[in-house]
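Appendix B. One record, verbatim.
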Amino acid sequence: MTAPTAHVPVLLDEVIEALSIQADDTVVDGTFGAGSYSRAFLAVGAGRVLGFDRDPDAIANGPSLVPDAIESGRLTLVEERFSQMDRVLAERGIGLVDGIALDIGVSSMQIDQAERGFSFQADGPLDMRMDQSGPTAAEFLNQADEAEIARILREYGEEPRARTIARAIVANRPIERTAELAAIVRRALGYRAGQKSDPATRTFQAIRIHINGELDELQDGLAAAERSLTEGGRLAVVTFHSLEDRIVKRFLRERSGGTPAASRHRPEQVDPRQPTFARIAKPVSPSEREVAGNPRARSARLRSAVRTSAPAWTQPTGGRQ
């Protein structure tokens, strides 16, 4: 197992402010990673933090990152998807919590370890599995038909030339390495060294999201957070691209009583369920100073809200994104 890579948390101060952690609060860090958020929550007075992560490497490395907190019982690590937090909390007899933070997407640790296959910055096996189980990215690309690959690239990477890339992938199979895939995409799109952005970025994002079911996990995780927060509990979610941010924005709008604007073709919609979130904060982006020190923060956006006393909604309103 590779040692953890140094990780710079994004919007850390803003997340702490949004959670407004008080002494003895119980807080869920739904994406433990390298433990940056968890350490910060404990430092500002949280009584107990539960760090969830689906990546077994993150959980295995955790005790060496925050040994005192684990030994004292203030930090508990859970190898599980954050969408399962309400079940895990109930099984452990914890009940409702005071704050939940979700830092969505791939972590710096995962990106920087070539053997995990998340990035084309260094060559490695085409894996991309966060929980290190199930089909790899290579298996998907080598088995799926052209139409399915194009759909994934279009929907999850917002790639305008998805069909061109999918055709090139199929023509060059089998593909086993990240460098191979990046080269195929670049050739297909006529990439020249020195261009501002690498066209392989959208393809890698799309495949990673598909392999890990990330958008479904986010939607299910938001519903789990709704079920897990006590009245007055705070939710803070950091996203890194428009697909994720759109899901969070829509969830909070619906759960706070927002409805689509009426028109003469579509009457105003009224949902009989009570709002489960209030005090929806304006989205927050990183400062220029933070982006200068951590370029990966550039696209980050924080959305936060406060839980009301209304019962959690039992049925989804909009289906999968």
